[in-house]
Amino acid sequence: MAMNPGEIDRYPVNQLQDRYSLARSAVYKRMEQLGIVPKKVGQRSYIGAQELTLMDELHVFINQGGSAAEFVEARGLRQQPGNHGNGNGQSNSGSDLATTPGDFGGLISAIVSEVLSRVGMGSEPDPLKYFETLENAARNGWLLSTSELAALVDLSPQEVEGYGDRFTEAGFVFSRAGYRKNREIAWKVTKRLK
Questions:
Q1: Integer Cα distance of 138 and 102 in angstroms
Q2: Which of 52, 75, 83, 91 has the greatest number of C-beta atoms within 10 Å?
Q3: Where does residue 14 rank: exposed (0-12), middle (13-18), buried (19+ CB within 10 A)?
Q4: Looking at residues 9-18, what average pLDDT do you find?
């Protein structure tokens, strides 16, 4: 199915953390629960428009008191017995939605889009959310892991670590400050003085 020029045909996985205000591990856990396998293009990973819609629907469902397991069960996303992926050992990565009879999938998408627009989660992420997150980290003394910082500043973890003990970006200073419990380097965020 061809997409209209204004529609999203792929969405960067590293932006899902901000979209849902979740830790990276929680985003990957949700994708795993939904059977979504991101596609790599160069150094970045993306999910498709249908997969993004499914992630949005799960987010709304969880925020309304449901669980991921209930969502998967309610949507019938579990693999059918005897269906072991697409023949090459991989799952269909969320394409099970295409088997929904009639236009029920389209109806669900329309309802979720309406709900998301009402709660301020339109399809376009807020570009200033990046600054808000950095401001909060600086103000509250939060220590970001290398992977969290990398996703936030749109770099790979190796690039972040390659900057050494200290670097600046967008008016903020990032300084190494020990290690997080997951053994990743912890980074302190401060505002650059004028």
A1: 50
A2: 52
A3: buried
A4: 88
> How many Cβ atoms are within 10 Å of 61's Cβ, its own excluded?
18
Compute the distance between CA of residue 180 and CA of residue 24 in angstroms, rounded to an integer. Answer: 14
The region that residue 148 occupies, defined by phi over 0 for left and psi between -120 and 50 for alpha, beta otherwise, is: alpha
Q: Is pLDDT above 60 for 20?
A: yes
Q: Which residues contact 45 (CB under 8 A, 6 or more apart)?
A: 12, 13, 14, 38, 39
- Distance, in Å, from the CA atom of 61 to the CA atom of 182, rounded to the nearest integer, reads 29
Give 29-81 pLDDT, tens digit per residue.
889 889 899 998 888 889 988 888 889 888 888 888 888 888 888 887 764 33
- How distant, in Å, are the alpha carbons of 16, 28, 112, 121 from that of 37? 14, 9, 22, 23
Q: Where are the beta strands (DSSP E) in the chain?
A: 10-12, 39-41, 44-48, 143-145, 166-169, 172-179, 185-191
Q: Residue 120 has what pLDDT?
A: 54
**pLDDT (mean) for 164-169:** 88
